[in-house]
Every structure is written in structure tokens, then in C-alpha cells.
């Protein structure tokens, strides 16, 4: 942090919650202080009124959750069993160095749902912000579709990355990427329809690019519209889940003002 500069922290995540329009499983069972007092008193062999505050203990939640629900990071093993001809990394094998760096926001908020972001689109977006990518940058694809989080068709509203555009970023030395759309690729039903019509290359091309070149991306981010195009740091550290294909994370941007 530069001397005399104030640091603004920006939360780039969406919440895990009940009644979400996310199609990935997520359910929270809440147990309040009174119920926990009753349950724990029985387990401890005491009466609820014996507790320091009679009948009241510590609240708790039980969560049933897909590793790809909410704001999360996809590990290379999510894309396929191998990457670059080697066993693909699980989320607990991701180097921490990949998860912190200079953030770069590329604005595709103008792009319609279902459109594939190509290499030329990336180059044009970089030209608009007068920025040249360097190894270790964390590239964020801004769609502003996080604003549709409470809409029933949220999963159908985003543009997405393609194979060539994903590989091009990796070739620039980018290992970590992210999007505030529901997914890295275009909406799944759109890809599935193309696959049914015989276009295999249209099915998860951005994800499957990770079978050839190793990288990670974060999906379902938020508030990328509150960030400058570059000149800030970002951390996207995933929860350590043994042998998992993904892990929840709470990305935070560190913006000097």
C-alpha cells in the first residue's frame, strides 16, 4: 500500500443461501440458541437451566452444499482428469501464488446473453483500458449479470468465454481468471442445444480448454463494476477441500484511493 493512501476493500462474492436461483445444491439448516441449549445440555448431561445464561447456548448451522454453489473456484480437475498431459490439480493443490495478484477488469457488460467472448473481444477490451497483460495478473470478466442474482433465469443471462479466448489468456501467463456471470462458458442449455445439433466444439469450450492448458477460474463473482480497470490487488483464496474439483472462496479487491 502506498504511503498516505487509503485502502478500500471490495467484496466480490455472492452469498450462499436458501431459496437461491443457483442450480447448484445449497441448503442451510439453522439451529438457534434455545434449541442448541436443549441439544447440548442433553449431550453434556446437564439441564438447560444449568447453562450460564439459562437455556441459551451457541447457535449453529448445518449446510448441504455443492462445491460449485455460490462464488467458487474451479480447479483444473473440474475440467477433466488430466491437464497438460499430467494429472489435473485438485483445489487443495492450487498454488497460493495463483490466488493473489494484480487485478484487471475487462468490461463485457454490453454483451448479450449467450454470446461467446472471442480473442479479438479481449484484445479490444484491453486496448480500451490501455493495458498489457503480464504473467500473474488475475483477469476478471465483467458482465454485470451478478445484478440478476435474484431473477429466476439468472443462469441464462450471461455471455461466456470460448476455447480460443481462454487459451489466449493462459498464453499471456494468466493462471487465474474470474467472471461475475453464472458460469465461465455461455449458459448450459444453449451449449446443450448446440451439442444436440452435432456441434461438439460448442459444449463447455472454455472449461475444456483447461485440459490442454492449466488454469483456474472463479465463477459467480459480484461487484466487478465497482472496481477500476486495473491498478488494484485481488485475493481469491479457495477453501481447502481435500481432492475436490472446486472450492468456495470470498474474493476481495484491495483498491487504493
Overall 3D shape: globular
Number of strands: 15
The share of residues in extended strands comes to: 15-25%
Mean pLDDT: 97
N-C termini distance? 10 Å
Q: How many DSSP helices?
A: 6
Q: Ranges with pLDDT <50 over ≥5 residues? A: none
Strand order of the largest sheet: 1-15-13-7-9-11-12-4-14
Rg from alpha-carbon coordinates: 21 Å
Q: In terms of structural class, how would the helical and strand content be classed?
A: alpha/beta
Can you write the helix and strand succession as a string?
EEHEEHEEEEHEEHEHHEEEE
Helix fraction, binned, reads 10-25%
Q: Kindly report the oligomeric state of this protein.
A: single chain
Largest sheet: 9 strands, mixed
Would you give an account of this structure?
Strand 5 (82-83) and strand 6 form a beta hairpin. The protein is of the alpha/beta class and 257 residues long. The protein has a nine-stranded mixed beta sheet with strand order 1-15-13-7-9-11-12-4-14. Strands 2-3 form a two-stranded antiparallel sheet. The mean pLDDT is 97. The longest helix is centred in the N-terminal third of the chain and has 12 residues, at 33-44. The N and C termini lie close together (10 Å). It is built from six helices and 15 strands.
Amino acid at each position: 500500500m502506498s504511503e498516505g493512501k487509503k485502502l478500500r476493500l471490495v467484496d466480490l462474492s455472492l452469498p450462499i443461501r436458501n431459496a437461491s436461483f443457483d442450480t447448484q445444491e445449497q441448503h442451510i439448516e439453522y439451529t438457534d440458541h434455545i434449541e442448541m441449549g436443549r441439544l447440548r445440555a442433553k449431550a453434556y448431561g446437564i439441564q438447560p437451566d444449568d447453562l450460564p445464561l439459562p437455556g441459551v447456548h451457541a447457535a449453529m448451522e448445518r449446510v448441504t452444499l455443492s462445491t460449485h454453489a455460490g462464488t467458487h473456484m474451479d480447479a483444473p480437475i473440474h475440467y477433466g482428469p488430466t491437464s497438460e498431459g499430467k494429472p489435473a490439480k485438485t483445489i487443495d493443490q492450487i498454488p497460493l501464488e495463483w490466488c493473489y495478484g494484480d487485478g484487471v477488469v475487462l468490461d463485457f457488460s454490453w454483451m448479450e446473453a449467450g454470446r461467446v467472448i472471442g480473442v479479438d473481444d479481449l484484445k479490444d477490451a484491453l486496448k480500451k483500458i490501455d493495458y498489457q497483460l503480464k504473467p500473474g495478473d488475475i483477469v476478471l470478466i465483467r458482465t454485470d449479470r451478478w445484478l440478476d442474482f435474484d431473477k429466476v433465469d439468472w443462469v441464462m443471462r450471461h455471455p461466456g468465454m470460448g476455447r480460443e479466448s481462454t487459451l489466449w489468456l493462459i498464453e499471456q501467463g494468466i493462471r487465474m481468471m474470474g467472471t461475475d456471470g453464472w458460469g465461465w462458458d455461455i449458459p448450459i442449455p444453449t451449449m446443450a442445444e448446440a451439442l444436440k445439433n452435432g456441434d461438439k466444439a460448442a459444449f463447455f469450450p472454455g472449461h475444456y480448454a483447461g485440459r490442454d492448458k492449466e488454469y483456474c477460474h472463479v465463477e459467480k463473482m459480484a461487484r466487478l463494476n465497482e472496481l477500476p480497470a486495473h491498478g488494484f490487488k485481488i485475493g481469491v483464496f479457495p477453501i481447502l477441500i481435500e481432492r475436490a474439483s472446486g472450492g468456495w472462496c470470498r474474493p476481495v479487491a484491495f483498491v487504493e484511493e
